[in-house]
Specification:
Layout lengths: L11 E2 L10 E2 L4 E4 L7 H8 L4 E6 L3 H6 L9 E4 L16 H6 L7 H8 L3 H14 L7 E5 L6 H12 L4 H9 L2 H19 L2 H11 L3 H15 L2 H8 L4 H11 E2 L3
Parallel strand pairs: 3-6, 4-5, 4-6
Antiparallel strand pairs: 1-3, 2-7
């Protein structure tokens, strides 16, 4: 279904991904992606009709939303839950790319940014709010979460979603790296643009790194969770307030035996 959507970056569901207990994700009610600012009428019809979209979680900053406002979706509730602010990092590369290219200190260190999103109180509160919505699907209809590129903030929330369902770290990483092809193409383009504009190869490499999907980034997030909470399970319970009972109930609603 989402494979036919061409106007949203990196959009896909998680249906068919196996958990470690042998069950698979049977629901297509969970969708990840990039900004919906270029959503076409055809793709809008797919999301509203076939996908049954009822809630959008917009993980972007106020500035990003103002620069690229989403297309209106009738009957869909949009919940704005930014995961970045000055206390987390100070800048996200997914906003004004020209400005980021002009000022090196505005380009984030990616592993540090991934770690900050799961350790900073502001960002963790956003993740907690996002999971309150996610845990209500699919009963209330499909939910789509997105940032701008559909890579970093969406990637982190998606990885945590999969781990909540008991998907192995290897499978979580494999899903994250599906973003790689599209991200690499833009990373190369941004590298060339900055190199031509600034004649600064070090700066161009830093910009390229910010646009890539890299296993090191996600590992930094998982390591940060483990250092802070001891385990991902403890993070869900102690930082996000998801009880073991809620987690098991959610797994029962979303996972199914694979025959």
């Amino acid at each position: 279904m989402t494979g036919r959507i061409k106007s949203v970056k990196n959009i896909r569901t998680f249906e068919g991904i196996p958990a470690e207990d042998g069950r698979v994700i049977a629901s297509s009610a969970f969708i990840r992606g990039g900004a919906l600012d270029k959503l076409t009428a055809k793709d809008k019809e797919i999301l509203l009709g076939e996908a049954g979209l009822r809630t959008v979680i917009d993980l972007r900053t106020d500035q990003e939303r103002a620069e690229k406002p989403n297309v209106d979706l009738e009957g869909v509730e949009t919940v704005h839950i930014p995961l970045l602010n000055e206390s987390v990092l100070g800048i996200t590369h997914e906003g004004d790319t020209d400005r980021a290219a002009r000022q090196e200190d505005m380009i984030p260190d990616m592993p540090a940014m991934y770690a900050a999103i799961v350790t900073n109180d502001f960002a963790v509160e956003g993740i907690r709010r996002a999971f309150e919505i996610i845990l209500e699907a699919p009963e209330k209809g499909a939910v789509l979460w997105h940032c701008t590129e559909g890579k970093d903030r969406s990637g982190i929330l998606s990885a945590l979603f999969l781990m909540l369902l008991g998907v192995s770290r290897e499978r979580v990483m494999a899903d994250y790296m599906l973003t790689g092809a599209a991200a690499e193409k833009k990373a190369r383009r941004m590298y060339m643009l900055v190199l031509l504009a600034r004649r600064d190869r070090r700066m161009a490499e830093k910009v390229r790194a910010a646009y890539r999907a890299d296993e090191r980034y996600l590992r930094a997030m998982i390591d940060a969770v483990s250092r802070q909470c001891g385990s991902v399970e403890s993070f869900f319970r102690d930082r996000l307030g998801i009880s073991d009972e809620e987690r098991e109930r959610f797994r029962s609603n979303v996972l199914a035996d694979c025959w």
